TrEMBL record:
This protein's UniProt keywords: Signal
Domain of life: Bacteria
Protein name per UniProt: RagB/SusD family nutrient uptake outer membrane protein
The organism of origin for this protein: Bacteroides xylanisolvens
PROSITE patterns: PROKAR_LIPOPROTEIN
Stretch forming the signal peptide: 1-22
Lineage start: Bacteria, Pseudomonadati, Bacteroidota, Bacteroidia, Bacteroidales
């Protein structure tokens, strides 16, 4: 076992150094890079190290997803010193040929690595006796990475070249079919349902149990490795949301969360937006690793092994960083605008200082490196990138419930929490709560209820802090007011979107949500409204608004 740990660590370092190199190479991808060693899986330990190779390619594109979405979104603007390529994206230029940011090669390298790995993994499995559960989990994990990558490409470019077998060169893209965004979502669902080698996307990895079973969980360097792979429940739920399968989206998320919450009455538990999670909002990004109770999955880096990205280079203003991207002033004002953000008894949203900061006379995005007591030195650009976090789950649920006409549930998820609707559950004469409310169980609240613990026992208990929703209007230090939700679904979606602009600013997730909502109502107006505002000072707001209203909001690149 120690031998395998040593092999994996050495391979992880070698792959990171070889495939990633320095930060400056990230946007100059070699489009002919493939996993072209026919025998790179020649013993069982290489099944695992081969998968690490896929992870290193994901590391190379993690921050790029943020730039491509944020520059065209409502929050971020390039600074005076930013490269022309960033301005080309910001201005929705039609001709982006040669633009290293817009070049999708890195995305297709991930997909090609997945296809190559699956083929060679199957060949190895056919000729050797291996642990079948490990094989299934590795196949399933690879399918989920591949699916997430296809979805990401579709959301950025509006279409994908559906590559279903290994290529010797990325120039081979012309041999494959091109799918539009809607067709891609259908194909992604089929990929997870049908899978590869009769294995679907549901099997989970267990890196710590596989390679480090003798170490306590808290002390194992592998305990967070599972987070590198997008989880099935979140990935599948997002696909269902895009496809309009709203109840299925809800079921995927609630089945996972309910199952977790009924097994322990701890007040600190993954995703539950209660007093404990609110009190650690600062830690969501200002940690060495993804915050355990907020993270569903994340692309992680370690600068000591030359695993880095360029987030701080772009957003941070301390030397040696370049400060190429900044928050638009109109976006900053939304955190203090009572019309946009019901402030209750506050003068600004509590998330403002965790997102942006007036530093030396200029606005800086401080989400990835807080100005006050920063965890990372300015040169340490190893910020992790959440692929899914707890807030993603809440927002997906809110969107889906809105389409089903459940206003009270949206109010719970965004404003007051499920705890605010505790009276909707059944309660017996002893004061024990049971039943469910549109799929939620009383384990989301601080009510006395039956817990079925993970050790096989059960008992009546209560959680100290129950769910308070995204805004936490019933958490004293939040002090925020509540958003108003009505029978108008489009208006509700816009309110959900406005909340996303505050909660998920600069994470590269708001812009795809805007596209999804615009497509849902065949109406690009509120998307155009919020985005064009940041162009008012540059004089091209009407031009950008016109492009968005015409549906011209995807990056233009000849994917063939």
């Amino acid at each position: 076992m120690m031998k395998m740990k040593k092999i994996l660590l050495n391979v992880a370092f070698i792959l990171a150094a070889t495939l990633l190199g320095g930060c400056d190479d990230f946007f100059n991808p070699d489009t002919d890079v493939t996993l072209d060693n026919e025998d790179y899986i020649s013993e069982e330990s290489e099944m695992y190290s081969g998968y690490i190779g896929i992870m290193t390619k994901m590391q190379a594109i993690g921050d790029k997803v943020i730039y491509l979405n944020e520059l065209r979104g409502e929050m971020v603007v390039p600074t005076a010193t930013a490269p022309t390529e960033l301005y080309n994206l910001y201005n929705y230029d039609d001709d982006l040929s040669g633009n290293s940011y817009a070049d999708p090669s890195g995305f297709y390298e991930v997909i090609n690595a997945c296809n190559d790995y699956l083929r060679k993994l199957k060949t190895y499995e056919e000729n050797n006796s291996i642990n079948e559960s490990h094989y299934k989990a590795l196949v399933s994990s690879t399918l989920r990475v591949k699916t997430w990558m296809f979805m990401t490409i579709a959301k950025i470019y509006g279409e994908v070249v559906w590559v279903d077998k290994p290529m010797t060169s990325l120039r081979d893209l012309s041999k494959f079919d091109v799918l539009n965004l809607d067709e891609t979502m259908v194909a992604c669902k089929n990929l997870l349902d049908i899978g590869f080698d009769n294995i679907d996307g549901t099997y989970e990895t267990a890196w710590k149990d596989w390679v480090d079973p003798d170490t306590e969980l808290a002390n194992s360097e592998y305990r967070r490795w599972d987070m590198m792979t997008p989880p099935y429940y979140a990935l599948y739920a997002e696909i269902c949301l895009w496809l309009g399968r709203y109840q299925q989206c809800i079921n995927m998320i609630l089945n996972k969360m309910n199952s977790m919450y009924e097994k322990t009455n701890n007040q600190s538990i993954a995703f539950l937006r209660n007093d404990m999670l609110f009190s650690h909002y600062n830690n969501f990004f200002n940690n060495e690793t993804p915050y355990d109770y907020e993270s569903a999955s994340a692309i992680m880096y370690d600068y000591q092994n030359r695993q880095t990205n360029n987030l701080l280079k772009h957003f941070d203003s301390d030397y040696p960083n370049k400060y190429w991207l900044a928050p638009a002033e109109v976006a900053v004002e939304r955190f203090k605008d009572n019309e946009f953000d019901p402030l209750g008894n506050q003068t600004k949203d509590f998330r403002m200082d965790r997102t942006v900061y007036d530093y030396n006379g200029k606005w800086v995005v401080c989400k990835f490196r807080p100005i006050s007591s920063p965890l990372r030195a300015a040169y340490r650009d190893d910020v992790f990138v959440y692929t899914y976090r707890g807030a993603d789950l809440y927002f997906m649920l809110a969107e889906a419930f809105n389409q089903l006409g459940r206003r009270a549930v949206i109010d719970a998820l965004i404003n007051v929490g499920v705890s605010g609707y505790i009276s909707e559950f059944d309660v017996n004469e002893e004061g024990t709560y049971s039943g469910n409310w549109y799929g939620f169980t009383p384990h989301w609240t601080n009510a006395s209820t039956v817990y079925n613990y993970s050790n096989g026992t059960s008992g009546i208990a209560s959680r100290k802090y129950g769910d308070k929703g995204i805004r936490g209007t019933e958490v004293s230090y939040s002090g925020l007011g509540s958003r108003t939700f009505t029978s108008d679904k489009q208006n509700n979606d816009e309110e959900i979107l406005k909340e996303m602009m505050l909660e998920m600013a600069c994470e590269g997730k708001v812009y795809p949500a805007m596209i999804r909502m615009a497509k849902r109502y065949n109406d690009n107006s509120f998307m155009a409204k919020y985005i064009s505002e940041k162009y008012e000072t540059t004089g091209n707001a009407e031009d950008i608004r016109s492009k968005i209203m015409n549906g011209d909001y995807f990056i233009k690149w000849n994917l063939k």
